[in-house]
Amino acid sequence: MKSYFTKGWLRVWVLAWLVVAVSAGHAATTVEGARIWPAPDHTRVVFDIGAGVEHSIFALEKPARLVIDIKNVKLGADLSRLELGGSPIKRIRSAPRNGRDLRVVLDLDNAIKPRSFQLEPNQQYGHRLVVDLIQENQKALPTKDEPVLQDNAGSRRDIIVVIDAGHGGEDPGAIGPQGTREKDIVLSMAKTLESLINSQPGYKAKLTRNGDYYIDLRSRTVLARKYNADLFVSVHADAFRTPQPRGASVFALSQRGATSETARWLARSENRSDLIGGVGGVSLGDKNDVLAGVLLDLSMTASINASIGVGDYVLKQLGGVTKLHKPGVEQAAFAVLKSPDIPSILVEAGFISNPREERNLKSSAYQRRISQAVFGGIDSYFNSTPPPGTLLAYNKRQAQNLAGGQYRIQRGDTLSAVARRNQTTVNELMRHNGLSNDRVLVGQTIEIPAS
Ligand SMILES: [Zn+2]
């Protein structure tokens, strides 16, 4: 208790009172604090301000600087104390201007592209002025990584899972009764899931963020496309205004969300050449509006179906570890799930607003069990329907080939599809089975040659 009344604290209180007194006298607001969030492609500087403010920013070269002018505020924080590591900022200077205003100058290592906007209060912070320093050498839209051959029978590429830890930086997400922040536990879970996936042959995991910074929702789907994701998994923790609700949930995109997204993609013609619709790589760049719309709808529908498919497996596994909030995969119009051609799910690992689940979610042992369940579900799904050209598809074929044996023709089968699945040819199957043409009937049994 006595430590509360040291000289340092007394000084802080006196300063705080002065700030209040001065602001009241001049009707000015105060910069109460500041934070810096370095990310790989930009650095976010945030000023806590008592209310919305008028401001302007401009960049200067040689040496590189960014000037931030804020109208009618007083500085009530020590900007020289900010941790600058990982950011392009070398030094922060500030001085009053025109008696009422404040000028903040960031001395920079290199030229950046500035952007600024204000944020309304959220659970953790009040009014904020945000200044982003965007690295110029980083393009806003990353180009696609080396494209992967989709249907090469001999290829054995990894299945790529992009894991998205929700929120980050200025956005804490939900906050538990003990102050646990969603952004922290989901990042920790995302990293656990990443290492589980990377330790399994045939899989490769990528994170959308690996630190405490914010990525806007669209950029998260852009990253999934850049990495050629086979699956996108966004990790969150739920919250409710009462402490009772609990349990994990899995979401896929809703049809309503899909419909509005289709319209958005079609409206932006530059998207079209970028979009690969489903298996087989259909580019929409050269299609008319109606055909492009139909192809996009098909791709969207296929992606949602796949999302629900993988979501079912994940939910089943989660059910072995925790209570489920709902018995089935739910659907909603979450922005991060809107990739038209990448199956995407959102996992709510539990309710951070429920005291017992908050305790669980904080524990690394529990985070690990949740991550294992999520990966268990993902792995079961991909083992049942491995994407063409992957190691899993190759292994499955090998197992079937080694077994050789018989196959009973199912509804919808064609001989060429059966041949492809078993890494053989239609001619080989015809010869092996003494068939005179490639027509097969449902229920007919054919011999698959061992390779
Ligand atoms: Zn969330």
Quick recap of the structure?
The chain is α/β, with parallel strands linked by helices. It contains 11 helices and 19 strands. Strand 6 (89-97) and strand 7 (101-108) form a beta hairpin.
Descriptive keywords:
451 residues; 11 helices; 25% strand
3D architecture notes:
With 451 residues, the protein is α/β, with parallel strands linked by helices. It has helices spanning 7-26, 182-198, 217-226, 255-267, 269-272, 289-319, 355-362, 364-384, 391-403, 415-421, 426-433, and strands at 29-38, 42-49, 55-60, 65-70, 73-75, 89-97, 101-108, 112-119, 128-135, 159-165, 203-207, 231-238, 249-253, 276-277, 282-283, 330-332, 344-351, 406-408, 445-447. Helix 2 links the parallel strand 10 (159-165) and strand 11. The longest helix has 31 residues, at 289-319. Mean pLDDT is 84; it is low at 1-7, 12-25, 139-151 and 276-281. Residues 166-167, 173, 182, 236 line the site of zinc ion. Zinc ion binds next to loops.
